[in-house]
């Protein structure tokens, strides 16, 4: 008998960088209609590329969610023009607002400043994603992370924006569950998209994990025979742990990082969701 599909995996989102039109079409064919496709903020990406990717995702039946890196925005006017194009040409209603790991080149010092001063509701934005870190941040102290999360949620809610937390990926089911329970104990009830890595090579995994500051949980995953099963067992273990803890962790779903394996990750997410595409 086929096992029942994992509960929390029935809805999921996918994050990608500079997707090609053919890749977007392949993802749309592999996932349920309306699946969120997060499009990352890349310094070398032009406005035309960004808007075109979001518009293509919308036409393909996906829900485009565009990253906005606060410190890379040169002006309020630039942000407003970008949002106007994204809404007008791609009907973008959801953003993931992040700080961006550079010194500010304009008026926005951090993600909070964009939420407070970016006039997002006026631009037609309805939902704001806020970055979160189960293993902490490589630079920002834990106390500041906690305070900043509260500030960003409050600023968004006051403006009538829906909020979703989107976490950095981790490889430790225990750490993720403990972090989610702590969030709920602190009174944070917003939905959480839990970052996890889709199918990828060990080499790519090591490179991205080191860059993103999640080395602690990676060391545990790489121990023993688990290193031969990267990309298959890792996400499965996290999903099963979240399922088991669901009554204590609230509204959560997977957020898959693709690391160049966009279509394979889409297929993996759908397999874990246990859905037939025709029924989407």
Give a nutshell description of this structure.
The protein is an alpha/beta fold and 280 residues long. The chain has helices at residues 21-30, 47-59, 76-90, 111-117, 142-158, 173-185, 202-212, 215-222, 233-244, 246-249, 262-273, and strands at residues 13-16, 36-39, 63-69, 94-98, 127-132, 162-167, 192-197, 252-257.
Number of domains: 1
Looking at the overall shape, the CATH architecture is Alpha-Beta Barrel
Pattern of helices and strands: EHEHEHEHEHEHEHHHHEH
Average predicted confidence as pLDDT:
87
Specify the structural class: alpha/beta
Rg computed from alpha carbons, rounded to a whole number of angstroms: 18 Å
The CATH topology is given as TIM Barrel
Which shape, going by the Cα principal axes? globular
CATH class: Alpha Beta
Order of strands across the main sheet: 1-2-3-4-5-6-7-8
What's the count of strands? 8
User: What percent of the residues sit in helical stretches (DSSP H or I)?
Assistant: 40-55%
Separate helix tally? 11
Beta fraction of the residues? 15-25%
Main sheet summary: 8 strands, parallel, barrel
Uncertain regions spanning at least 5 consecutive residues = 220-233, 276-280
End-to-end Cα distance, whole Å, is 23 Å
Q: What brief labels describe this structure?
A:
280 residues; alpha/beta; TIM Barrel; 8-stranded parallel barrel; globular
List the helices and strands and how they pair.
Layout: E1 13-16, H1 21-30, E2 36-39, H2 47-59, E3 63-69, H3 76-90, E4 94-98, H4 111-117, E5 127-132, H5 142-158, E6 162-167, H6 173-185, E7 192-197, H7 202-212, H8 215-222, H9 233-244, H10 246-249, E8 252-257, H11 262-273
